[in-house]
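Sat 14:20. Reprocessing the chain from the morning session after the first attempt stalled halfway. Input below, unchanged.
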Amino acid sequence: MDPFAALADETRRRLLVAIASAPRTAGALATTEPISRPAISRHLRVLREEGLVRVTTVGRTRIYSIDHDGLAPVQALLDSITSASAPPAPQPPIAVERLDALDLEIRRAVRDHRTSSPREETA
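Finished this time. Tokens:
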């Protein structure tokens, strides 16, 4: 698995976002997720194995925090996508000025047709 595969799971992305705001324990993360604490621990293990989070042990407590080095490939991909120049806007196959000239000719033909043909009388 790579960082991108680890981030493919929605729960892992939510956990990563939560940890990004402040380091947390698995128990603290379990209070905000609709899954069990053991399931949270399994997701955290995947994130740790892929280098996206690191663990600090304080006594018997394991505190998870973001490992920014692990996010570097993801950040590089996002940077390359966002820095790429935007493709040029598509151009219409006919110049707008030519359509204006066509519009003028149509209006002129309609006006000439109305003035040259006699009005029909309705009963």
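The radius of gyration is 32 Å.
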